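User: Before I run my own analysis I want an independent prediction to cross-check against. Here's the chain; please return only the structure tokens and, at the end, one sentence I can use as a sanity check.
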Amino acid sequence: MPRYALFLTAIVTLLGIQSASADVKLDVVATFSILGDFVKNVGGDRVFVNTLVGPNGNTHVYTPSPSDAKKLADANVIVVNGLGLEGWLDRLIKASGTKAPIIVATDGIKPRESAAKASDDEGHGRTDPHAWQAVANAKTYVENIRNGLVAADPEGRATYEENARKYLVRLDQLDRDVRSTISAIPSDKRLIVTNHRAFGYFEQEYGIKFASPQGVSAEAEPSAKGMASIITSIRQSNAPAVFLENITDPRLVEQVATETGVKIGGTLYSDALTDEKGEAPTYIDLVRHNLRQLSSALSN
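Assistant: Structure tokens:
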């Protein structure tokens, strides 16, 4: 073969190797669907996202499988919520033997105290892990994920920073829309009932009071005394509506609605996204759906 042909072959081979390398994505494992959505928005085409707890899944009571350990073992980066949400995670990490860096998405967020008992069934203690319910906290999640991806993949810095910048602009607009909508609801109507205490950060940030016959645990059964207390509270406060959630047993709220005569306002999405065909396939869709439900029930 002529020398120039060998040279051209070498160039083509080298370009092919570079192209294949450019197509390799960072393998990122997120513990649940909301985190997975944040990672996709920041990582874009540079990441492949595996989510352990999928759409409509309950992270509180999730039981990992052997395939989850394999996902962690193969991961380049792991993204977790922290604040005690994933009580099963330490055992899974140990079983997997993974050496991947772990991004704790809630780093820098001031945790709020849970309204639950001192230590609930998932071991959350007195810390409420649902920090993403305040959009300001969601921005911190995104910033932590951005920084973690840059550390794991420095060549992608420009992509991660630009994707995060654009997404943070959208979150700023979302936060303004939430505040504007809530401000239009009469202050004496800003009380609802849900069947899982997951909206404490939303309540703290935006001024809607959430009452619940359960604590922060998604599987704890309320006591008869607790149910009587919440029913009395609703009757005294004239709460306009009770809401179901997509990850918990609806019978609690249905019982409250029956005994108080308060209408069921619909479904709120708390700990999980829906699939692509559902009402909340992304975090922004989740917040906007919840906002529409609250506004409709409380403004009438």
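Sanity check: The two ends are 83 Å apart (CA to CA).
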